[in-house]
């Protein structure tokens, strides 16, 4: 009887070890996938030109969108509608577009 208990205990230990190994592999695969997605997103953000022509800076220094546009920010891809833009978009425009009241690059 005690031999039977030892066999079951050993099998249970092996089963637990295999379960941990499977969870670790799944975690590693998920981490690799997230890294690849981040790299692709970053590459797309760098490749996409900032549409400076769709914005101008008013006399108060605020950026105004004159037409719908899409722009990559630290928050991801944002679809912009005409009107005043928020800080994440303004940061990208400040870094990539020349200001002025006539807009343009």
How is this structure best described in words?
There is one protein chain. The chain has 105 residues and is α+β, with helices and mostly antiparallel strands. The chain has 2 domains: 1-47; 49-96, no CATH class. Helices cover 53% and strands 17% of the residues. It has helices at residues 2-47, 87-96; strands spanning 55-57, 63-65, 69-73, 76-80, 83-84. The strands form 2 sheets. Strands 1-2-5 form a 3-stranded antiparallel sheet, with no helix packed on it. A two-stranded antiparallel ribbon has the order 3-4. The longest helix has 46 residues, at 2-47. The chain starts with a helix and ends in a 9-residue tail after the last helix.
Query: Structural class of the helices, strands and pairings?
Result: alpha+beta
Report the strand count: 5
Number of helices in the DSSP assignment? 2
Largest sheet: 3 strands, antiparallel
| β-strand amount | 15-25%
Helix content: 40-55%
- SSE series: HEEEEEH
Uncertain runs: 100-105
User: What Rg, in angstroms, do the CA atoms define?
Assistant: 27 Å
Mean pLDDT: 77
Q: What is the first-to-last residue Cα distance?
A: 84 Å
What is the strand arrangement across the widest sheet?
1-2-5
The dominant shape is rod-shaped
| Domains, number | 2
Which keywords apply here?
105 residues, alpha+beta, 2 domains, three-stranded antiparallel β-sheet, two-stranded antiparallel ribbon, 2 helices, rod-shaped, disordered C terminus
